[in-house]
Every structure is written in structure tokens, then in C-alpha cells.
From TrEMBL:
It is a multi-pass membrane protein. Gene3D superfamilies: 1.20.1280.290. The chain crosses the membrane at residues 6-22, 42-60, 66-88, 100-119, 125-144, 156-178, 184-207. Mediates both low-affinity uptake and efflux of sugar across the membrane. The keyword Repeat applies. It comes from Riccia sorocarpa. Residues 242-276 have a biased composition (Basic and acidic residues). This is Bidirectional sugar transporter SWEET. Belongs to the SWEET sugar transporter family. GO terms for cellular component: endomembrane system; plasma membrane. Residues 242-297 are annotated as: Disordered. It is found in: Cell membrane; Endomembrane system.
Length: 297
């Protein structure tokens, strides 16, 4: 292997390791809470299948740098899933276990097909390579969802810049590596990943300022409808608290009751929306949906 190939491959390994470690923050939360909370195991199960397939491909080729990064990825994904299984409830354990059995079954089938379909090494590599490429491209649904969310909400909180930049850099480096070693199977998914990374960065630049402009001051929130809070003099003067109390007692006229209930629902929805798109929650959501191409070669 040429020196340039080795250097680029090592750089790709380092960047990919950073992406593999991205979910660490999520699992720290799970361990502290001793619960998987709202997190799902699906992204990690899919990632496990992807790294297993690419490890098989690297072994059949052979390609040392592809094997090293995906073997490390296999270890980390297995660690994440072990943690998830430990803290998941009964339904979560059953669902995750079934998914793992399916993944291991699919991997076994691909391995058997690659090893027995032909005695020629090139044919075996082709089978493993095609399956790996197809599965990696399918997993691009994750960044597509993130990009759709950015366009819909006109907010980049769902797509942190650091992760987008890492995905772009990772795809670019592995595409360059594939060009140098003339590996079409590595080139295709990472080339697609590079294009997605460019689009993500462009979306970030377009909606970054709009996200800041959309932030509302706390004072702009609607009048208080919670009767447990101390009433303000201005609210008493306007009859807000009296209406809220009448609403709780059920003595408010039907027309006014419907209006107050609608206003209360709108306020609660607005508060929930702000909570959902908070930076801390956005990072966790984005990490859960990391695309496989950014992690795997």
C-alpha cells in the first residue's frame, strides 16, 4: 500500500472513531437515569449490521484500514447495545433482542453467501461489497430526516454544525482513500455521504441566521393560565385569573370556555415545542439518527 493511501486511511480512521464516540453523551444520560427513557435502539442495531458487513468486506479484500475502523465500530456498537439492554424495560429488551437476532441472521446469510458462492476471491469481495453499499445508502434516511426538519422548522438546532462538518470531512477523506486505492465499493457510499454533507452545511448556513431571528423573548409569552401561580395585578384587572378559575370550576360560559381551552392548549404546545428544540435535546436526537455512512467506510 502506498504511503499516501496509508496516511489518508489513518486520518479516516481517526475521524470515524470520533463519530463512533458521538453517542457517548446519550449513554451517559441513560446510565445516570438508569433508564433508556425515550431513546431507541434501532440506530445502534443498524449501525452494528453496517460495521459487521464492512468488516467482512475488509477481511475478504483484504484491506487493513477498513478492518481496523469497522472492528472498533463493532466493539463500540456492541457496548452501546449492551448498555441499552441493561437499562431498557421488558418491552425494550424484547424488541432490541429480536432486532439483534435479525441482524446477526442477515450477517450470517451474507457471510455464508460470500464464502460459498464462488471460489474466486473477487466474486466474494463483490458480494460483500454490494450488500454493504446497498445497506449504507439505505441508512441515508437519517440525514434526510434531519435536513427535512431543518427546512420545515427553519431551525438548525436539529442539525448541529460540528456533527455535520465531521460527516462531510469523514465522507471526503474516505472518498479520497477509495480513489487512491481504486475501490468502487468504498467510493460509492462515501461519495454520496460527501454530497449529503455539503447539503447539510449549506442548509446550516442558510438557516443559521433565521434560527436566531426566530428566538422569542420570554416576555413575549401569552398570559398565564395556571391558577397555581400568584396572579399579577394587571391580570386581575383584566379578569384573566377570574376566567382561569372559572374554567377550572366549570362555571365559565361555553363560548368563553372553548376559547380559554384553545388558548391554554396553544400555550402548552408552544412551551413543549421550545423544550423539544432546545440545544441539549437536539444534540441527543441528532446523535440517535446519525447516518451509517459517516461512521463506516
Amino acid at each position: 500500500m502506498a504511503l499516501a493511501d496509508t496516511i489518508i486511511g489513518i486520518i479516516g480512521n481517526v475521524i470515524s472513531i470520533c463519530l463512533f464516540l458521538a453517542p457517548t453523551k446519550t449513554f451517559v444520560k441513560i446510565i445516570k437515569a438508569k433508564s433508556t427513557m425515550e431513546f431507541k435502539s434501532t440506530p445502534y442495531v443498524c449501525a452494528l449490521l453496517s460495521v459487521l458487513l464492512w468488516t467482512l468486506y475488509g477481511l475478504l479484500k483484504p484491506a487493513t484500514l477498513i478492518v481496523t475502523i469497522n472492528a472498533a465500530g463493532t466493539f463500540l456498537e456492541a457496548l452501546y447495545l449492551s448498555c441499552f439492554l441493561y437499562y431498557a424495560d421488558r418491552k425494550g429488551k424484547i424488541r432490541t433482542s429480536r432486532s439483534l437476532l435479525l441482524v446477526l441472521g442477515l450477517f450470517g446469510i451474507v457471510t455464508a453467501a460470500s464464502l460459498t458462492a464462488s471460489r474466486m476471491r473477487d466474486t466474494r469481495v463483490m458480494i460483500a461489497g454490494i450488500v454493504s453499499v446497498v445497506f449504507s445508502i439505505i441508512m441515508y434516511a437519517s440525514p434526510l430526516r434531519a435536513m427535512k426538519m431543518v427546512v420545515t422548522t427553519k431551525s438548525v438546532t436539529f442539525m448541529p454544525f460540528t456533527l455535520s462538518a465531521l460527516l462531510l470531512l469523514n465522507g471526503t477523506v474516505w472518498t479520497l482513500y477509495a480513489v487512491l486505492v481504486k475501490d468502487i465499493y468504498v467510493m460509492i457510499p462515501n461519495g454520496v455521504g460527501t454530497l449529503f454533507g455539503i447539503v447539510q452545511i449549506l442548509l446550516y448556513l442558510v438557516y443559521m441566521k433565521k434560527s436566531k431571528n426566530q428566538e422569542l423573548p420570554v416576555e413575549a409569552e401569552k398570559p398565564r393560565l395556571n391558577t397555581n401561580e400568584a396572579p399579577k395585578s394587571s391580570e386581575i384587572a383584566n379578569g384573566v385569573d377570574k376566567k382561569a378559575i372559572d374554567l377550572e370550576k366549570g362555571t365559565l360560559p361555553r363560548g368563553e370556555r372553548a376559547s380559554m381551552e384553545h388558548e391554554r392548549k396553544a400555550l402548552n404546545d408552544d412551551r413543549q415545542r421550545k423544550q423539544d428544540i432546545s440545544p441539549a435535546g437536539a444534540d441527543a436526537a441528532y446523535v440517535k439518527n446519525l447516518p451509517s455512512e459517516g461512521k463506516m467506510t
